[in-house]
Amino acid sequence: MILVLNMKMNMSLSSMIAYEEYIRQKDVIILPQYPYLALFKGGKYHLGSQDVSKFLKGSYTGEVCAKSLKQLGVEYVLVGHHERREYFNEGLEDFKAKIRNVIDNDMIPIYCVDQVDITNNTTLKNSIIEQLKIIPDDTKEILIAYEPSWLIGKEEEKIDIELMEDIFTIIDEYLTSRSIEHKLLYGGGVNEANLQSLLDMKHNSGFIISSSALNLEKFAHIYERLK
Q: Which of 12, 29, 54, 45 minimizes the C-alpha distance to 145?
């Protein structure tokens, strides 16, 4: 089972140094802030980035290109997270360019898929497939993270497992029809109470967690159950 730790914009330098030591012998994918990427080297973990520029190189102040991430040892890159959509107004054309840059630099995209309308099954299916259409045909490997936006960072909400399985089936069948090697991850509202149900979910290969990654007790519980 795959476990992705999205640290978002959290932790001080000293805290991140201690965190790196804590996970050094753990088989996880860690996504720290850009300034901390160079701290992660030599562990059992795999290094990932929370984002990448849609531009290859050039005069784009504040951006970080895929080539630079690759040179720092990054193996995975998160693309299309709900927060990039909501706070930075990024859309499918941005994600298409980012995925292109990631695979062209021999890294693996972790592409986040959201939804528009969960009350209409047809609309939901079309929405999911439209987001998947941007994945290039020559993609050798990709992780798809499905995170219901209303559950991100919330552990008290009940998860509709049947709906999640339907969505995972839509994703799996579509990518299989295009012969794209893929694994599916779940994120949003993961806790000790619902973990087993999520583990038993069809097509689920792991999780992407954020708030639970920051809490070492919760992280340790999830890690032990998965590994």
A: 29
Note if 141 is an active site residue.
no
pLDDT tens digits, 58-117: 999 999 999 999 999 999 999 999 999 999 999 999 999 999 999 999 999 999 998 654
CA distance 199 to 21: 27
Which of 46, 81, 182, 203 is flagged as catalytic?
Answer: 81
Inter-residue contact 37 to 14 (CB < 8 Å): no
pLDDT in tens, 143-170: 999 988 766 655 555 788 898 999 999 9
User: In 3-state terms, the chain is what percent helix, strand and coil (to 5)?
Assistant: 40, 15, 40
Domain ranges of the chain: 2-226
CB atoms < 10 A from the CB of 151, how many?
Answer: 19
Catalytic residue among 82, 147, 182, 203: 147
CA distance 127 to 132: 9
Catalytic residue flag (residue 20):
no
The fourth-level CATH superfamily of domain 2-226 is Aldolase class I (3.20.20.70)
